[in-house]
């Protein structure tokens, strides 16, 4: 554990709480990609299968449980409680375009050809691309609510802090997880254009009537 890992976890948790709070207060999930949230729920499910068999620390266990709960509650709100407000017409990213190559890569590139290890590897690869349906949705509609941009910002910040965590661990422990680091770099790259838009356009649109941030082709990568 180091400060970058803790800050990364807190940033990740804050992103999820912001999204849940937005849905609960507005009783609306317009602008939120249900497909991205399904992928994140799948990420946590396949990564934390060792929740009750591999105890590391109280902190580790609590964070795993909280992330799982937040992910599934978010999916329930989108497809259950507030499903009438879900913008399915714009949430059209084809999940098979992500799942098929991720599954294949998980079998080809892993540390051990065992079920738990393959599923853990799958979760790492999938997390690196799970945000794409959300980014695609923003690209398609051309705008995002301010609270959604905050959610994406803290998700990107979480990944950037985790990269710093890996660098710190390599310096202090001589520990290097190639799969996690490479996947983290890929995930961070997807946020680069969004970070630019968040800084240059997000602030000036904070007080707009609709509470949205207009974007133009946010994914040049």
Automatic annotation (TrEMBL):
The keyword Transferase does not apply. One of its GO terms (biological process) is protein retention in ER lumen. It comes from the Eukaryota. It holds the Pfam family ER_lumen_recept. It is found in: Cytoplasmic vesicle, COPI-coated vesicle membrane; Endoplasmic reticulum membrane; Golgi apparatus membrane. The keyword Transmembrane helix applies. One of its GO terms (molecular function) is KDEL sequence binding. It is a multi-pass membrane protein. The chain crosses the membrane at residues 62-80, 118-138, 150-167, 179-199. PROSITE patterns: ER_LUMEN_RECEPTOR_1 (PS00951), ER_LUMEN_RECEPTOR_2 (PS00952). GO terms for cellular component: COPI-coated vesicle membrane; endoplasmic reticulum membrane; Golgi membrane. Keywords: Cytoplasmic vesicle, Endoplasmic reticulum, ER-Golgi transport, Membrane, Protein transport, Receptor, Transmembrane, Transmembrane helix, Transport. Belongs to the ERD2 family. This is ER lumen protein-retaining receptor. It comes from Delphinapterus leucas (Beluga whale).
